[in-house]
């Protein structure tokens, strides 16, 4: 019994069991790679980064210090996407971003539950809105200050 306890303690102290997974990337599968890449650059201001495939089917963007968005071509038809499944980005100036969307004629909605045009304020005071990319993937933009 003492040997089993020692082995158990040794294993748990090694640190390999309690490691937490970290977010790496998210992927959107698109019909028109250039149109989608232009959208993410122009609308969200994302920075393109090198991708290893070099096959003309991938565009990668930096979306945080170590996180990425992978845009991959090959979809043959538009698929319906539920607004509850979305990518969320935060911006420093929510008002400026709303003006940017208006200038680009991007349609947006108040919230997950309210499809009316506009913005909303969550119970924690964060302003938010939702819109779709060219393939119908939902995107939330907010001004969370965490």
CATH architecture field of the largest domain: Roll
The percentage helix is 10-25%
Radius of gyration (Å):
20 Å
- First-residue to last-residue Cα separation: 48 Å
Q: How many H/I helical runs?
A: 3
Task: Give an account of the 3D structure.
The chain is an alpha/beta fold and 146 residues long. It folds into two domains: 24-77, 2,3-Dihydroxybiphenyl 1,2-Dioxygenase, domain 1 (Roll); 78-146, 2,3-Dihydroxybiphenyl 1,2-Dioxygenase, domain 1, CATH 3.10.180.10. Helix content is 22%, strand content 26%. It is globular and about 40 Å long.
Secondary-structure blueprint:
Layout: H1 2-13, E1 25-30, H2 33-42, E2 47-49, E3 58-62, E4 68-73, E5 86-90, H3 94-103, E6 120-121, E7 127-132, E8 138-142
Parallel strand pairs: 1-4, 5-8
Antiparallel strand pairs: 2-3, 3-4, 6-7, 7-8
Compact summary:
The protein is of the alpha/beta class and 146 residues long. The chain contains 3 helices and 8 strands, in the order H-E-H-E-E-E-E-H-E-E-E. Mean pLDDT is 92; it is low at 1-12.
